[in-house]
């Protein structure tokens, strides 16, 4: 793939079209509302347009974009002006991207801490391998496997706690 300094509008559009859905969904996992998610998605692709990085292949391109999206979202969440929004604001934007339906599992997943949530989401909803997730999160593979293990355990505990409430 050409160096991004030499990318024309058509090439940037192709990269955008290939990756916008994944970037949007990852941003939503952090931002939890449409407006902030759209801002972070846009900022991710603006970074692409201004960054001079050459990609080895499409997988490298996607991993780089997701890593940028995660970092931008984390930085945004550090802001004092950031507000917390519930999953009730989940909505499908006007045909520009597709997001998974907010089922019970996804609702529980959204309540987990950042790294556990990110690892589980990328693994189960985006179908990435542990190695791919490790690259995207800039973490060693054993760390990602730990996130997946602890995340599954936390989800199981949430389910068991809910079942206990219903049994009472």
Describe the structure concisely for a colleague:
This protein is mainly α and 168 residues long.
Radius of gyration: 17 Å
* Separation, N- and C-terminal Cα atoms: 60 Å
Specify the overall morphology. Answer: globular
- Which range best describes the helical content: under 10%, 10-25%, 25-40%, 40-55%, 55-70% or over 70%? 55-70%
Uncertain segments are 1-5, 80-96
> What order do the helices and strands follow?
HHHHHHH
CATH class value of the largest domain: Mainly Alpha
Largest sheet: none
| CATH topology category name of the largest domain | Rna Polymerase Sigma Factor, Chain: A
SS-based structural class?
mainly alpha
Chain-averaged pLDDT: 80
Total helices: the number is 7
Strand proportion: under 5%
CATH architecture of the largest domain: Orthogonal Bundle
The total beta strand count reads 0
How many individual domains? Answer: 2
Task: Give a structural overview.
With 168 residues, the chain is an all-alpha fold. It has 2 domains: 1-99, Orthogonal Bundle (Rna Polymerase Sigma Factor, Chain: A); 100-168, Arc Repressor Mutant, subunit A (Orthogonal Bundle). It is 68% helix and 0% strand. The chain is built from 7 helices and no strands. The protein has helices at 9-31, 34-50, 58-77, 104-110, 114-125, 130-137, 141-167. Helix 6 crosses helix 7 (141-167). The longest helix is centred in the last third of the chain and has 27 residues, at 141-167. The protein starts with 8 loop residues before the first helix and ends with a helix. The model is unreliable at 1-5 and 80-96 (pLDDT under 50).
